[in-house]
Amino acid sequence: MRTMGLFHVGCRVLNPANSKSVVVRRLMVDTGAESTWISAAVLESIGIERRKKDLQFQLANGQIVTRSVGYAVLKVDKAETVDEVVFAESGDLQLLGARALEGLNVAVDARRKRLIAAGPIISAAAVPPRFGRLVQVASAKPGGKGGTKRLKRAQPAVKGPR
Fold first, then answer.
1. For 114, how many CA atoms within 13 A lie in the half-sphere containing its CB?
2. Which of 88, 103, 111, 123 is the 20 to 30 Å CA partner of 162?
């Protein structure tokens, strides 16, 4: 019986400090895990340093473990991101976690067991509505003198005590 949604991807792991890299052929895609876990031996082979030590992680079975974390560039197909990676020890799964998936701007197609482009990255509006109305900048009149009009300061959209 095959597990619905369970699949693996290949990933190139690059040390941002020295550009050494290695290919990890099988990382389990795990949207339930925040962090990416890669074998400590693999990370050490390309010189990734343990930057944060003795962090506690809770595994899916409820067990609390202590691991170190370093920084790596992760490349999956044409997408790449910089992320914290956990130094996985013997017996730990190697995982591509939710934070890396977000950074790679990919989504999980569980039915086809693959990663797909997530589309445009959502961003904040240029001017939040609570800061007032948008102000248009007046342009020079065609054929006229090249000056611009002076604009009044935008009034708050909501009046009341501050």
1. 4
2. 123
